[in-house]
Amino acid sequence: MVSGVFSIPLRTQDSASPSARRGTDGPAVASREFLGGPENALAHEAVQALLRREDAYNPLVLFGPSGTGKSLLARSLAERWKEGRRGDEGRRGDENCAGDQERRGRKVLVVKGADFARGVATALETNALDDLRARYGGAPLLVLDELQELAARRRAQQELAGIIDSLVRGRRQVIVTSNASPAEIPDLEPTLVSRLCGGLTIPLALPGQECRREMLARSFEQLSLNVSDEAIQRLADGLNLAARDLEACARAIADRCGNKTKVDAETAEAFLGDYAAQSGPSLRSIASHVAKYYGLRSADLTGRSRHRTVATARSTAIYLSRQLTGSSLQAVGRYFGGRDHSTVLHAFRKAETMLAEDGEFRLAVSEITSRIDANRQVSALAGS
Fold it and tell me: 3-class DSSP state for residue 250?
């Protein structure tokens, strides 16, 4: 292990297992680990405290750009939490208290923000809000993944704030993930932001240089590829990527090497040169990434909706299309619903103004650009 790099052993449901694909009970559980460096030391401390069942951090909010491992950490904590509860139950097998049995029968809940919002909408339609509140409010641990998906969904946010109050009062743990700090997410209710910021809010960063070096070394070892220390160092310096993208780069290098068993610094430099020279993304790819970031469909960006979130997402997509592809205003307009030159120019200039004045919008543009860049370059290199 490189000095300064830590490992958090995790337990996660293996979504690729046959039982998980079938949706049956008891999906396979795979051992994994979260590698981090000094840039994520605070997350290490908080996770270890949670696993020791300390109550210092509640709610715990993990936020950061795509690829930092926030969802992996949160969902894996839920799995380990369930394992700990099963162990507790075994040690307390002689207890017959009905109240204790009821607490042990409640399930750890893991839900995405969009699914929670849909559940609230359904409960409102069917007069089942009390059932929803009881289900979530009685969970020993609630993980809400992708908080930003609740943006502009006021009633869902109100219900979540009430549920968090109930859980924290009952000393039940809440873990939330998001792509930004709750205070920086547009259209979140102040009450919900206040509840979330009442615990511990931890930024997660992409792996630093030390951590990237360790990740690359492990990936090459798994691929049975002999890579010189100098080559790994140059790759770690040149690839400021998430863990999954570093793994993809390692596989791409292995594919290029063929029967060659030794990767030297010259090979690493050649790879980095090709990596930097990849062509720009397509308009379709940009629209897909922007829509995903804002919790929309790509079709929403080409449609006629003027809803605030849709309009902001559309302006973001138009701005990035001009910046990243060099496509003409006419070509961009044709792709985004047949809009004319002046409409596209207005959206582009609006985005420029927002970049200068709105920190939340700058964060969104930076995050989406990083996702697009990592996706296109790694995909192209893997297929080369």
Answer: helix
Give the position of tokens 């299309």.
321
Residue 1: inside a domain, yes or no?
A: no
Q: What is the DSSP string of 1-66?
A: --TT-EEEEEEEE-TTSHHHHHT-SS--EEEEEEEE-GGGHHHHHHHHHHHTT--SSSSEEEE-ST
Contact at 8 Å (CB) between 271 and 227? no
Structure tokens at 297: 């469909």
Cα 64 → chain centroid? 7
Question: pTM score, two decimals?
Answer: 0.67
Does one domain contain both 273 and 299? no
Domain-ending residue, one of 203, 224, 247: 203
Task: Show the domain range for 164.
Answer: 6-203
C-alpha separations of 332 from 46, 91, 213, 376 in Å: 45, 64, 40, 19
For residue 17, what pLDDT is reported?
A: 37
Per residue in 263-284, pLDDT tens?
Answer: 888 888 888 877 766 656 889 9
For 367: left if phi > 0, alpha if psi spans -120 to 50, otherwise beta; the answer is: alpha
> How many Cα atoms within 13 Å fall on the side-chain side of residue 307?
14
- The residues that bridge with 10 in the sheet, in sequence order, are 32
